[in-house]
Design goal:
The chain is mostly helical. The protein has 6 helices and 2 strands, in the order H-H-H-H-E-E-H-H. Helix 4 packs antiparallel against helix 6.
Length: 185
């Protein structure tokens, strides 16, 4: 599989999670507005609104965009020690840090996958008033997001270490800055 194809697949998956995250923000806003409106206008809050926000919406909003953040190289960076490094050295250092990030995030993904499997096996749920809300499906948002982020970080590490003289990948494709001429690997 060539680098361009991997880049397109990662980009597609990252965009998909980003769209789902955006939809979840809209759903969360609507759910909260409906809950507050019913609470103050009819003295009858929506059952399970807080639980839906806590177990689904907020998890999705926080975790689903992580692979896009990694893809766009948009993490917070403190350049105190790296601002004056030569570009090639900086690129290699970024490659090593991306590799370390991939390893750490993969470990977190592994642990969260075990947690999601456990929650699913036990049919994890909460009771909100007299409404049962199954929370185990929401547990899968974290491992799915983290596995994709780990894959993106590993891919970024590969690009930075394999092609150290190239500029940082542009949004929309790893090879946008080179015009598509990265050889098949």
């Amino acid at each position: 599989m060539d680098v361009n194809r991997i880049s397109r697949i990662l980009d597609l998956l990252s965009r998909l999670l980003m769209v789902v995250g955006g939809v979840m923000i809209v759903l969360m806003a609507g759910h909260v507005v409906a809950d507050v409106g019913r609470r103050y206008l009819m003295n009858a809050p929506l059952k399970g609104a807080i639980e839906m926000v806590s177990y689904y919406y907020m998890v999705a909003v926080v975790f689903l965009p992580l692979s896009t953040v990694e893809r766009l190289n948009a993490h917070f960076v403190s350049g105190l020690f790296t601002d004056h490094l030569p570009p090639l050295t900086l690129r290699r250092l970024e490659g090593v840090t991306s590799l370390l990030m991939a390893l750490v995030v993969a470990l977190l993904a592994w642990c969260s996958t075990e947690g999601a499997l456990h929650a699913m096996a036990n049919s994890e749920r909460v009771l909100a008033a007299d409404l049962i809300i199954y929370t185990w499906p929401g547990r899968w948002l974290v491992p799915v997001s983290l596995w994709l982020m780990a894959a993106q970080a590993l891919f970024n590490a590969f690009l930075r270490l394999r092609y150290p003289s190239d500029p940082v990948p542009a949004p929309g494709g790893a090879i946008a800055s080179r015009g598509g001429d990265i050889p098949d690997v």
